[in-house]
Amino acid sequence: MGWTQGAENTRQNKTLIEQWTGPIDALKAAYEKYRPQYQEAYEDHINWEFTEEELRGIVNFLESPLGKHYLDGSWRMEAYTGTNIEETEQVLVTKAVEQYRAR
User: H-helix or E-strand containing 86?
Assistant: First the structure.
Protein backbone atom coordinates (compact mmCIF):
# COMPACT_ATOMS: atom_id res chain seq x y z
CA MET A 1 0.00 0.00 0.00
CA GLY A 2 3.03 2.25 -0.03
CA TRP A 3 3.51 2.67 3.72
CA THR A 4 7.28 2.72 3.35
CA GLN A 5 7.53 4.41 -0.02
CA GLY A 6 9.84 7.42 0.24
CA ALA A 7 10.62 6.64 3.88
CA GLU A 8 13.92 4.84 3.43
CA ASN A 9 15.88 7.38 5.47
CA THR A 10 13.41 7.78 8.33
CA ARG A 11 12.82 4.03 8.63
CA GLN A 12 16.36 3.46 9.86
CA ASN A 13 15.78 5.77 12.83
CA LYS A 14 12.62 4.02 14.03
CA THR A 15 12.23 1.09 16.36
CA LEU A 16 10.38 -2.01 15.22
CA ILE A 17 7.39 -0.99 17.34
CA GLU A 18 7.35 2.47 15.73
CA GLN A 19 7.50 0.87 12.29
CA TRP A 20 4.41 -1.17 13.14
CA THR A 21 2.42 1.42 15.07
CA GLY A 22 3.14 4.35 12.76
CA PRO A 23 0.91 3.12 9.91
CA ILE A 24 -1.79 2.06 12.38
CA ASP A 25 -1.78 5.48 14.05
CA ALA A 26 -1.91 7.20 10.64
CA LEU A 27 -4.83 5.01 9.58
CA LYS A 28 -6.71 5.76 12.80
CA ALA A 29 -6.18 9.51 12.34
CA ALA A 30 -7.35 9.40 8.70
CA TYR A 31 -10.33 7.23 9.65
CA GLU A 32 -11.74 9.84 12.03
CA LYS A 33 -12.75 12.02 9.07
CA TYR A 34 -14.75 9.13 7.57
CA ARG A 35 -16.08 7.71 10.83
CA PRO A 36 -19.59 9.23 10.44
CA GLN A 37 -19.95 7.61 7.01
CA TYR A 38 -18.93 4.20 8.34
CA GLN A 39 -21.17 4.58 11.36
CA GLU A 40 -24.18 5.61 9.27
CA ALA A 41 -23.70 2.73 6.84
CA TYR A 42 -23.34 0.26 9.71
CA GLU A 43 -26.36 1.61 11.56
CA ASP A 44 -28.48 1.61 8.40
CA HIS A 45 -27.66 -2.03 7.79
CA ILE A 46 -28.03 -3.17 11.38
CA ASN A 47 -31.45 -1.47 11.58
CA TRP A 48 -32.46 -3.18 8.34
CA GLU A 49 -31.09 -6.57 9.40
CA PHE A 50 -32.40 -6.78 12.98
CA THR A 51 -35.57 -5.73 14.77
CA GLU A 52 -35.41 -3.72 18.00
CA GLU A 53 -36.35 -6.86 19.91
CA GLU A 54 -33.55 -8.85 18.28
CA LEU A 55 -31.03 -6.09 19.02
CA ARG A 56 -32.11 -6.04 22.68
CA GLY A 57 -31.62 -9.80 22.82
CA ILE A 58 -28.16 -9.53 21.25
CA VAL A 59 -27.15 -6.79 23.69
CA ASN A 60 -28.51 -8.76 26.65
CA PHE A 61 -26.54 -11.81 25.54
CA LEU A 62 -23.30 -9.88 24.99
CA GLU A 63 -23.61 -8.22 28.41
CA SER A 64 -24.25 -11.56 30.14
CA PRO A 65 -21.39 -13.64 31.58
CA LEU A 66 -21.77 -16.12 28.71
CA GLY A 67 -21.77 -13.32 26.13
CA LYS A 68 -18.68 -11.74 27.68
CA HIS A 69 -16.98 -15.14 27.61
CA TYR A 70 -17.98 -15.52 23.96
CA LEU A 71 -16.52 -12.12 23.04
CA ASP A 72 -13.36 -12.77 25.01
CA GLY A 73 -12.87 -16.26 23.63
CA SER A 74 -13.89 -15.75 20.01
CA TRP A 75 -10.84 -13.67 19.04
CA ARG A 76 -8.53 -16.26 20.65
CA MET A 77 -10.32 -19.09 18.89
CA GLU A 78 -10.07 -17.33 15.55
CA ALA A 79 -6.38 -16.56 16.08
CA TYR A 80 -5.69 -20.15 17.15
CA THR A 81 -7.51 -21.79 14.28
CA GLY A 82 -6.13 -19.29 11.78
CA THR A 83 -2.59 -20.03 12.87
CA ASN A 84 -3.04 -23.79 13.10
CA ILE A 85 -4.61 -24.29 9.69
CA GLU A 86 -2.26 -22.10 7.64
CA GLU A 87 -0.55 -25.18 6.18
CA THR A 88 -3.89 -26.80 5.45
CA GLU A 89 -5.07 -23.65 3.66
CA GLN A 90 -1.89 -23.57 1.60
CA VAL A 91 -2.41 -27.21 0.56
CA LEU A 92 -6.07 -26.52 -0.23
CA VAL A 93 -5.22 -23.52 -2.44
CA THR A 94 -2.44 -25.44 -4.18
CA LYS A 95 -4.84 -28.32 -4.93
CA ALA A 96 -7.51 -25.92 -6.18
CA VAL A 97 -5.02 -24.21 -8.50
CA GLU A 98 -3.86 -27.61 -9.81
CA GLN A 99 -7.46 -28.69 -10.44
CA TYR A 100 -8.30 -25.42 -12.13
CA ARG A 101 -5.27 -25.61 -14.42
CA ALA A 102 -6.06 -29.22 -15.32
CA ARG A 103 -9.43 -28.24 -16.83
Answer: helix 86-101
